[in-house]
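Good morning,

Both structures are done.
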Amino acid sequence: MLVLGCHLSFVNGYEGLGKEALSIGANTFQFFTRSPRGGKARELDLMDVENLNRIIIDNDFKHILAHAPYTLNACSQKEYTREYAEEVMRDDIYRMSFIKGSLYNFHPGSHTGQGVEPAVVMISDMLNRVLSPDQETIVLLETMAGKGTEVGRTFEELQMIIDKVNVKEKLGVCWDTCHIYDAGYDIVNDLDGVIDEFDRIVGLDKLHAIHLNDSKNPFKSHKDRHEKIGLGSIGTDTFEAIINHPKLKHLPFYLETPNDVEGYGEEIKLLKGLRK
């Protein structure tokens, strides 16, 4: 089964997310638990969550993915920013505990001039305080494009974090196709080679999800500007190869393209048509 969804707005609550996903032919979705710019999340409505869980069960949804706010930076030079990151992640993991089989994705952060190694220590230290062996939600490090002082631009940097985390079974990776292509991993001309490299450095057992995004910029540009499927430098053929690849096709896929809900519906229809 192709597990495919997109990023939806949390305007109408949890049940609203499920209904909107159904309306465009999705069987999963991604959402922000709070504003992408940070701040407090809305009060948790357990009845609303239960209504979503019924939609998930009745329609065989898989792996609902929450995305941390972009302002979460566990390796900031500023202590209060790091404290905020930990507070948000603790709260978000608690919220996602009410949705079975959920995932939680975050950008590792920007070291803001401190260097990668100190940043890795800060990120892994936070994860060691936050992750618990008995939590169900898997937390995912997102692959980054390498813009500015981003951490996670290489598979090696991601593995450096994983190596220092104690509860490794609750930590994984989310590929972003725009990010890894912009970072210098040539998924267009050498998808098998990129997969093999990730498996050698991190391990395919750690890959839990993929963001499907075309790129407005050329290979190895380190720009991170998403494009609609088939309209960027990655191209439709590569997405067809990804969703059908024997080592990737079992994963959940999430669109983050510059689209409205109707546009996501068209992309979901397109990708379903490419599934073999």
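Second structure follows.
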Amino acid sequence: MKKGLVLEGGAMRGLFTAGVMDVLMENGITFDGIVGVSAGACFGCNYKSNQPGRAIRYNTRFAKDKRYCSVRSYIKTGDLYNAEFCYDTVPKELDIFDTEAFEKSPIEFFIVCTDIETGKPVYRRCTRADDNFLVWLRASASMPLASRIVETDGRKLLDGGISDSIPLRFMEKAGYERNLVILTQPRGYTKKQTRSLKLVRLALRKYPAAVKAVAERYKMYNGELRYVLSAEQEGRALVIAPDEKLPANHVEHDPDVMREVYRLGRKACTERLADIISFLGE
């Protein structure tokens, strides 16, 4: 039986996911595969490299650093989260990502992006932690309006959450029979259509399929959420979600808020640890 870990995005709400994952790693919980969307991919790669604590460490360290996330970065580069600093300087120099451990790990790791020419999700299996891997991570977390389009491997890509926010179906089709799903919104949450659709239409006017995907994302998301909860009722999935709306915004510069979101993730996982172990057959 293949065991999978499904990681929703949510920008800085993803530190809830980081808290959950750190408790799992500290308790030796193993998975055969992981799929991450946006922040779920950026933080989830630390599971395959076995680096608990890394996500909360570098996010709090650089929370107020203008090189990391700032209006200045957006004006200068077109990216609110500075691509060079976040996906080159930090993992290679300031909080080193363990590429050797990542590549030696038997865990399958998938990144979800959205192909803006088709409006469809793209699932990238990553076995090497090279520069191309970092580009795919950046693409998965490149939110419309806040980021430039990322071009790599003949594709034009943006945030994976546009087209597949909670990729449980993907993991099941890939043969993963038991999946732990980490959400960054509380149970009962319902997504509404984005209020920035007019701006998205303007920014992505050359890519009508992407505009359509953004416009209909709320329908896709709510349908996926219903599917996930149904899978949980049927015993194919186990869901870890915050009890209430998390205090972090998409962009968050307060380290104390980040630590609180992370703490809530650790708490949620600790309270369900026995259920997780039983569900996965650990």
